[in-house]
């Protein structure tokens, strides 16, 4: 019974510490993003991105969609997507390119601050997320254009409903998110303890070791990286904040793990969401995973040539 009390006390303490660290980031940044969006920041970013959309075979209006996703989240981007009359003229290939770019770069104000709290500088996160999304868009557009694949009109299975964008609804949504995040973090910590006790983490690490070696990560990075990829950057990033503070993860592990999680997280939920609006699995699942791994492999090669002192100065904060 005493051991159980000690475990519960430790669990509550770690859940509280990890959750508060996340809330200190997400709440102010979400409020600032909401304020900027109300004052037209999304439209300004969308007009800039609109001039680039042709590079990816997309109409300029899709710049507003990506801008909404970049500054808010995927649902914000899809809400903008649903309001545009041009969506009925898009092909499956075009929607697949757009949704993959959104998957690789969205919610940047909040998600980059989570990475910053774990130790990765904002400019590096922006470079990886933005550059990875742009590269994915170019590659996928090139492949679809060259092969002529998926050129038929897109038929979405679902469109997001229009919601009241007022501050009251925003506050209620934030409260719900905070409770959900705290609950999931507590559950994840319990699962991590249980998996470690049962030896599953050692087994998982053994299976993933070849991939980790290719990506340049140590065994210690495997569990939190997988959690981030499958459940989301908020959860994986929250655990990495805890691991980085404890000194369990080397600097390069933190950088590479957060880079991979940034480009490829919530693999199940977000992939299903983008599939429902017309994205094809070849882009939103296979393409996203493969391109994310290739980007991180490239980062690994570059970081190996960078002295640790330089890495800490310009990449790791």
TrEMBL record:
Keywords linked to the UniProt accession: Membrane, Transmembrane, Transmembrane helix
Record field: transmembrane: 90-114, 126-144, 178-199, 211-233, 281-303
Listed name of the protein: Nucleoside recognition
Highest taxon of source: Bacteria
């Amino acid at each position: 019974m005493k051991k159980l009390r000690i475990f519960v006390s430790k669990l509550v303490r770690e859940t509280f510490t990890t959750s508060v660290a996340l809330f200190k980031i997400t709440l102010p940044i979400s409020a600032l993003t909401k304020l900027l969006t109300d004052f037209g920041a999304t439209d300004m970013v969308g007009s800039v991105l609109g001039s680039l959309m042709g590079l990816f075979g997309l109409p300029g209006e899709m710049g507003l969609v990506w801008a909404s996703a970049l500054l808010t989240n995927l649902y914000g981007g899809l809400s903008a997507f649903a309001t545009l009359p041009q969506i009925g003229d898009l092909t499956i290939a075009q929607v697949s390119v757009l949704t993959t770019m959104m998957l690789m770069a969205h919610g940047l104000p909040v998600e980059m601050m989570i990475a910053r709290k774990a130790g990765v500088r904002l400019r590096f996160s922006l470079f990886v997320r933005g550059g990875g999304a742009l590269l994915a868009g170019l590659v996928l557009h090139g492949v679809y254009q060259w092969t002529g694949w998926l050129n038929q009109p897109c038929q979405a299975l679902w469109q997001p409903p229009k919601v009241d964008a007022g501050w009251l609804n925003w506050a209620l949504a934030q409260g719900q998110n905070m409770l959900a995040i705290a609950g999931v973090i507590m559950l994840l910590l319990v699962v991590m303890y249980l998996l470690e006790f049962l030896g599953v983490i050692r087994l998982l690490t053994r299976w993933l070791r070849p991939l980790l070696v290719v990506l340049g990560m140590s065994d210690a990075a495997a569990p939190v990286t997988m959690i981030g990829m499958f459940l989301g950057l908020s959860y994986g990033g929250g655990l990495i904040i805890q691991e980085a503070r404890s000194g369990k993860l080397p600097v390069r592990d933190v950088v590479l793990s957060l880079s991979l999680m940034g480009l490829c997280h919530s693999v199940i939920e977000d992939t299903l969401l983008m599939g429902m609006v017309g994205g094809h699995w070849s882009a939103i699942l296979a393409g996203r995973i493969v391109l994310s791994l290739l980007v991180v492999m490239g980062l690994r090669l570059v970081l190996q040539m960078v002295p640790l002192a330089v890495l800490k100065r310009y990449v790791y904060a």
